[in-house]
From TrEMBL:
It comes from Sinocyclocheilus grahami. One of its GO terms (cellular component) is cytosol. One of its GO terms (biological process) is one-carbon metabolic process. PANTHER family: ADENOSYLHOMOCYSTEINASE, ADENOSYLHOMOCYSTEINASE 3. The gene is LOC107583963. This is Putative adenosylhomocysteinase 3. Keywords: NAD, One-carbon metabolism. The lineage of its organism: Eukaryota, Metazoa, Chordata, Craniata, Vertebrata.
Length: 266
């Protein structure tokens, strides 16, 4: 069995040891990014074992993505920067379950929260929840904190970081560490200064600096604690999915991506 988070192990085995799939009964995947990669493999006809999408089970979406992020976004930012949230202008990129949790917490602390979103339903939800929908390039010069929660790549590119104001905090709550284009900051004209663990100041030639947290990796896993209650729910859901795939009779699951049966995921 493969128990994966982000699809990295699955991708690595496909690349290096594809013959191992003859002995593998199935894949269990828990992240948005990993599930997306599985669906891509399935569409291309390259998925050669059944896969279980744990990410979209209610227990994962609501507890890990929504409620856990609602608590850990503030925890992670406080531990690393000691920032005061009241009155701060924050842009949250993405209004899925993670974005909803982050926005709710920041709004409750008195921050002015902007949201960027490409999905029309999620965008409408952000609007109905009282957040101002913007394009990133409209607010990038004025915001104090930028948080990515999309599961996509290159959401915050160098062009945006060049235009950020001095002292802007940049962090990622989405699964993939490619949401912030950190590679574009590793150039000779920019100076990196390690302030403390998981906190870097990236300094421009004119003296402007941005505060980059965890080098663009997942903020709550890198900089704060995740409640054991939440982890136990997600881990249990994954264990149930592993047991279901392992014990399933021949033919129940074909070479495709499946949602965890509702009786297990609730």
């Amino acid at each position: 069995m493969i128990l994966d988070d982000g699809g990295d192990l699955t991708h690595w085995i496909y690349k290096k040891y594809p013959n191992m799939f003859k002995k593998i009964k199935g894949i269990v995947e828990e992240s948005v990014t990993g599930v997306h990669r599985l669906y891509q493999l399935s569409k291309a006809g390259k998925l050669c074992v059944p896969a279980m999408n744990v990410n979209d089970s209610v227990t994962k979406q609501k507890f890990d993505n929504l409620y856990c992020c609602r608590e850990s976004i503030l925890d992670g930012l406080k531990r690393t920067t000691d920032v005061m949230f009241g009155g701060k202008q924050v842009v949250v990129c993405g209004y899925g379950e993670v974005g909803k949790g982050c926005c709710a917490a920041l709004k409750a602390m008195g921050s002015i929260v902007y949201v960027t979103e490409i999905d029309p339903i999620c965008a409408l939800q952000a609007c109905m929840d009282g957040f101002r929908l913007v394009k990133l390039n409209e607010v990038i010069r004025q915001v104090d904190i930028v948080i990515t929660c999309t599961g996509n790549k290159n959401v915050v590119v160098r062009e945006y970081m060049d235009r950020m104001k001095n002292g802007c905090i940049v962090c990622n709550m989405g699964h993939s560490n490619t949401e912030i284009d950190v590679a574009s900051l590793r150039t000779p004209e920019l100076t990196w200064e390690r302030v403390r663990s998981q906190v870097d100041h990236v300094i421009w030639p004119d003296g402007k600096r941005i505060v980059l947290l965890a080098e663009g990796r997942l903020l709550n896993l890198s900089c704060s604690t995740v409640p054991t209650f939440v982890l136990s729910i997600t881990a249990t859901t994954q264990a149930l999915a592993l047991i279901e795939l392992y014990n399933a009779p021949e033919g129940r699951y074909k070479q495709d991506v499946y949602l965890l049966p509702k009786k297990m995921g609730v």
